[in-house]
Design brief:
binds iron/sulfur cluster, alpha+beta, globular, 4-stranded antiparallel sheet, 21% strand, 2 domains, 340 residues, single chain, 13 helices, 7-stranded mixed sheet
Amino acid sequence: MIAKTKLADLVSFLALCGKVVGPVPLGHGQFKFAEVRSLAEMALDYIPTILPPKKYFMPQYETLLRYDGADGQQMQAVVEVEELVLFGVHTCDLAGIQCLNVVFSDRPRDLHYMIRKNHITLIGLECSDYCDSYASCAMLRNHLPKGGYDLFFSELSDGYFVDIKTQKGEQLVEESGLFEPVSDAAREQLQELRRAKKQIFRSEVPIRYQDIPRLFDETFDSDVWTRIGEKCLSCGNCTNVCPTCYCFDVMDEPDLDLTRGRRIRVWDSCQHETFAKVAGDESFREQRSDRKRHRFNRKFRYPMKRYKRMFCTGCGRCSRSCMAKIDLKETLGALMEERG
Ligand code: SF4
Ligand code: SF4
């Protein structure tokens, strides 16, 4: 347990040890993860930030290596890494990070990602209130903590119940000297919080979790894809803000002397027409409807086969940020209606 009155001291302690990142308000009901020095800068009752914490695990723009062709072909791998504490991460975003962990630790392992991940301490924070109508975390079973953190905080009446998951978390608790043993009353309060959540967080679309992949299997030729394809602008917002979208492009950026330079990795999007274009100008997903269908299947159906999990956390960011108002829950509903 940690008393509410000691939370500010904890953040100050973490900030003395290194960089702390937490949810900060941007105005107009929007939030972002940014560096903080104190608790006062954060908004712990936030709805999902515009960009998920994936930006710290897989930066939008990253140098992979530097090369120098002046003396033969010399290459030096670069790993851009910094010690970081991510504070106040909700269960949906913890689930998103777990998806990225699964992908980047699959063979061939992505060492840039793996090294960076080991330098990030994750402190989760439980939502006790529902965020907004775009979210579907209960449908995807991500409204309760399922691991993937070092410490996890659940707010009770006068303190936070703290679940310690790793040795790193244990060390932090010991070194800060701010925590106290948990009481039976606090355990009972936590159970009460979880019982209350069952009523507040309900499956938002009337479909069982285990039936979702089959819905996409059975609606591959649905007109719903044509209809949302006509609305989609192919801007790629939905993939940029998605905590589990990890597609990237790799390219060389030569210096002006054209001898030295660096190889970079940047986020890419399956919603761009060029993404699936190959030699001879052939495109596998020429139509916007093809690309939208692909994205939905990449969230709910294909990863079940390879990773035995869905790659949608229910955070609602794609629907919240889509200029064409393409809504994930509405799309699921339309597919269900059409299938009958
Ligand atoms: S954010 Fe909306 S308009 Fe943009 S690519 Fe995604 S679905 Fe299409
Ligand atoms: S598909 Fe949409 S709701 Fe699902 S994880 Fe990505 S951004 Fe969140």
